[in-house]
């Protein structure tokens, strides 16, 4: 049995186990770590020849960069996060061609695809292609930048020790980030809303507008070679329809439609924005169709729940991928999460209020905690119950109870913090969703260090 086939079979067995947890991404710790380790092959450092004169550098940073060799020059698709990592990829590409770079293409404006452009440029200045609205969806409002930085570091596990690190779901755990964005070069050619078909260095190339993970995204199509570069609208994981670091609403329905449009091209090779390329027309087309259907299914199920008057919490626990899609290796929830997507769709379409008057003006957290303690028979009884559920490894409930106990004036807040740390580590051990795992562990470390002793967020 070949390595890819073995990996596929392994993932199927893992997802069968995971399916018993009602769509969540918690399994037993040994299974969780095996699943995350099995995903490593998707971003092992390599130059992959995807077609004649087309090469993709995987694993040189979190994202991919690709080189298309033309008659008198090359085209670069995406440029990694900074010039240090990009320079290593550029050097590896030079083993296949020393022709000058005639054009650079940004599939979208996320920094891990744009920050290393200068490393590919010599004395000849290339054209740099991007969409008309490029940069319009790069991230959070600057006003919430400080907390966004902290949450981003937790999601990606940037401060985790080597012993705690696994990966980021669609990228390695450790990347060169000190020079992020320092190699960015501004676009010089604007791709109009209708798209663009042109010839660069003798290569026929098409730019197709495709909003999805960002509003400024596009995919690149090479009609002669039948190679499609998807940007971050496709990679080997259920898509990150919402990022827990915090993001503006990502238009889920449009994302599904953009991927469906890609499938219509029936590519011989599909090159994702992260993870390994997919070869073969049937495999590539099926993957894109499945991806589009999975996104649309989560959206449609969420809309049904919304219009039935259900809360986002209830819907998040009910929505599941269709049975025929849940075991697909490119739809395992290593990076994106179905429950997170549901909540994002709800708030993106309706805002924070769930329509239930009980939640219109809820009690303050301290008041809720005091009433919870009263129901439990006092602070001591609530504290004891918190410890009992932790011992039973009911980690989520222990986590929630610790948040009540920490508000009580007569409580042992140090003990509550210790319980919360232990519960977070317990949840992390069971997680195969990399952002969830990284966030649990990072938050536990922040609590343990004392950085979050007073505010706990």
From TrEMBL:
<dbReference type="InterPro" id="IPR036866">
    <property type="entry name" value="RibonucZ/Hydroxyglut_hydro"/>
</dbReference>
<dbReference type="InterPro" id="IPR001279">
    <property type="entry name" value="Metallo-B-lactamas"/>
</dbReference>
<dbReference type="InterPro" id="IPR038536">
    <property type="entry name" value="Alkyl/aryl-sulf_dimr_sf"/>
</dbReference>
<dbReference type="Pfam" id="PF14863">
    <property type="entry name" value="Alkyl_sulf_dimr"/>
</dbReference>
<dbReference type="InterPro" id="IPR029228">
    <property type="entry name" value="Alkyl_sulf_dimr"/>
</dbReference>
<dbReference type="GO" id="GO:0018909">
    <property type="term" value="P:dodecyl sulfate metabolic process"/>
</dbReference>
<dbReference type="GO" id="GO:0018741">
    <property type="term" value="F:linear primary-alkylsulfatase activity"/>
</dbReference>
<feature type="region of interest" description="Disordered">
    <location>
        <begin position="159"/>
        <end position="187"/>
    </location>
</feature>
<feature type="signal peptide">
    <location>
        <begin position="1"/>
        <end position="20"/>
    </location>
</feature>
<protein>
    <submittedName>
        <fullName>Putative alkyl/aryl-sulfatase YjcS</fullName>
        <ecNumber>3.1.6.-</ecNumber>
    </submittedName>
</protein>
<dbReference type="GO" id="GO:0046983">
    <property type="term" value="F:protein dimerization activity"/>
</dbReference>
<dbReference type="InterPro" id="IPR052195">
    <property type="entry name" value="Bact_Alkyl/Aryl-Sulfatase"/>
</dbReference>
<feature type="domain" description="Metallo-beta-lactamase">
    <location>
        <begin position="62"/>
        <end position="274"/>
    </location>
</feature>
<keyword id="KW-0378">Hydrolase</keyword>
<dbReference type="Pfam" id="PF00753">
    <property type="entry name" value="Lactamase_B"/>
</dbReference>
<keyword id="KW-0732">Signal</keyword>
<dbReference type="InterPro" id="IPR044097">
    <property type="entry name" value="Bds1/SdsA1_MBL-fold"/>
</dbReference>
């Amino acid at each position: 049995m070949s390595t890819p086939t073995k990996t596929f079979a392994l993932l199927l067995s893992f997802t069968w186990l995971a399916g018993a947890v009602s769509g969540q991404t918690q399994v037993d710790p040994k299974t969780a770590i095996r699943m995350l380790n099995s995903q490593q092959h998707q971003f092992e450092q390599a130059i992959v020849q995807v077609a004649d004169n087309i090469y993709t550098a995987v694993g040189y940073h979190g994202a991919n960069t690709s080189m298309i060799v033309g008659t008198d020059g090359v085209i670069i698709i995406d440029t990694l996060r900074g010039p240090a990592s990009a320079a290593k990829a550029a050097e590896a590409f030079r083993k296949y061609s020393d022709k000058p770079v005639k054009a650079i293409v940004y599939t979208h404006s996320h920094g891990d695809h744009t920050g290393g452009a200068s490393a590919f440029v010599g004395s000849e200045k290339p054209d740099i292609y991007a969409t008309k609205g490029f940069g319009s969806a790069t991230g959070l409002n600057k006003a919430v930048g400080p907390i966004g930085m902290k949450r981003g570091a937790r999601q990606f596990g940037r401060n985790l020790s080597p012993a705690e690190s696994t990966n980021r779901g669609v990228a390695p755990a450790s990347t060169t980030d000190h020079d992020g964005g320092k190699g960015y070069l501004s676009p010089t050619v604007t791709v109009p809303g209708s798209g663009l078909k042109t010839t660069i260095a003798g290569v026929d190339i098409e730019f197709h507008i495709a909003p999805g993970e960002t509003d400024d995204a596009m995919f690149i199509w090479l009609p002669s070679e039948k190679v499609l570069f998807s940007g971050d609208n496709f990679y080997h994981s259920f898509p990150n329809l919402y990022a827990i670091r915090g993001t503006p609403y990502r238009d889920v329905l449009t994302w599904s439609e953009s991927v469906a449009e890609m499938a219509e091209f029936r590519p011989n090779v599909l090159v994702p924005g992260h993870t390994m390329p997919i070869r073969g027309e049937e495999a590539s087309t099926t993957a894109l169709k499945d991806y589009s259907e999975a996104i649309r299914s989560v959206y449609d199920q969420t809309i049904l729940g919304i219009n039935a008057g259900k809360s986002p919490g209830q819907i998040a626990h009910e929505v599941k991928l269709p049975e025929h899609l849940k075991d697909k290796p490119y739809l395992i929830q290593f990076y994106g999460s179905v429950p997170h997507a549901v909540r994002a769709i709800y708030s993106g379409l309706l805002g924070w209020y769930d329509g239930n008057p009980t939640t219109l003006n809820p009690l303050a957290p301290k008041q809720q905690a005091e009433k919870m303690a009263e129901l439990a028979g006092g602070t001591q009884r609530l504290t004891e119950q918190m410890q009992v559920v932790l011992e039973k490894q009911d980690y989520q409930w222990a986590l929630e109870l610790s948040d009540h106990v920490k508000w009580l004036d007569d409580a042992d807040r140090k003990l509550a913090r210790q319980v919360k740390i232990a519960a977070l580590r317990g949840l992390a051990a069971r997680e195969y969703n990399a952002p969830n795992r990284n966030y649990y562990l990072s938050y536990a470390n922040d609590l343990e260090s004392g950085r979050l002793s007073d505010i706990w967020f």
